[in-house]
Amino acid sequence: MTKVQLLSRDIRRKRREITGLQEDLTNMHDHLAVLEARAKNVGKPTYSSAEVRARLALTGKK
Q1: How many CA atoms lie within 13 A of 58 on its CB side?
Q2: pTM exceeding 0.70
Q3: Which domain holds residue 37?
Q4: pLDDT values of the chain reduced to their tens digit, one per residue, 62 residues
Q5: Looking at the domain assignment, is residue 55 inside a domain?
Q6: Is the separation of the CB atoms in 53 and 59 below 8 Å?
Q7: Is residue 53, in this structure, part of any structural domain at all?
Q8: Which residues of 18-39 are buried (b: 16+ CB within 10 A; e: fewer)?
Q9: From 62's CA, which of 13, 14, 21, 23 has a CA 20 to 30 Å away?
Q10: Could you tell me if 37 and 30 are in contact, meaning their C-beta atoms sit under 8 angstroms apart?
Q11: What is the tally of helices (H) and strands (E) in the chain?
């Protein structure tokens, strides 16, 4: 392989790696948001999905 081909391969590999890290970071932010919401709502009443559907008069699946 030429230097250009090696460099191109390395760039593609690094881009895939960066994309994976960005996805991981997004997932961690989402998880943190859930944990923060749970901490904020400790002691408050919670509702199951079925209770919410019944309250909003929603049917099961579309």
Answers
A1: 10
A2: no
A3: 3-41
A4: 899 999 999 999 999 999 999 999 999 999 999 999 999 999 999 999 999 989 998 876 65
A5: no
A6: yes
A7: no
A8: eeeeeeeeeeeeeeeeeeeeee
A9: 23
A10: no
A11: 2, 0
User: What is the reported pLDDT for 58?
Assistant: 82
The whole-angstrom separation of Cα 27 and Cα 21 is 10
3-state secondary structure of 2: coil
pLDDT of residue 60: 60
24 is a domain residue: yes
Is residue 62, in this structure, part of any structural domain at all? no
The domain tally of the chain equals: 1
For 53, other C-beta atoms within 10 Å of its C-beta total 13
Query: In Å, what is the CA distance from 3 to each residue of 7, 12, 13, 14, 25?
Result: 6, 14, 15, 16, 33
What's the token pair of residue 27? 């997932």
